[in-house]
Amino acid sequence: MENGDVLALSATHANVAGKIPAGDINIDVNGINDIGNIVKRNKAACD
Predict the structure, then answer these.
(1) pLDDT tens across 10-32, in order?
(2) How does DSSP classify residue 25?
(3) Is the Cβ–Cβ distance between 28 and 40 less than 8 Å?
(4) What backbone torsions phi and psi does residue 43 show, to the nearest 5 degrees?
(5) Please, are residues 30 and 39 in contact by the beta-carbon 8 Å criterion?
(6) In this predicted structure, what is the pLDDT of residue 44?
(7) Distance CA 47, CA 27 (A)
(8) How far apart are CA 14 and CA 11, in angstroms?
(9) Exposure string for 32-44, b = 16+ CB within 10 A, e = fewer
């Protein structure tokens, strides 16, 4: 799968059912609203 792929699931199958516009996301595993200076610096370095 790639960014934007839509995954359709049933009781017995899974398949790629389409695509939506999407890009990369960053996930901060320390907390949803807890973004510190180190995390901001790391994210800026990836741009």
Answers:
(1) 999 999 999 999 877 776 666 55
(2) -
(3) no
(4) -65, -40
(5) yes
(6) 80
(7) 15
(8) 9
(9) eeeeeeeeeeeee
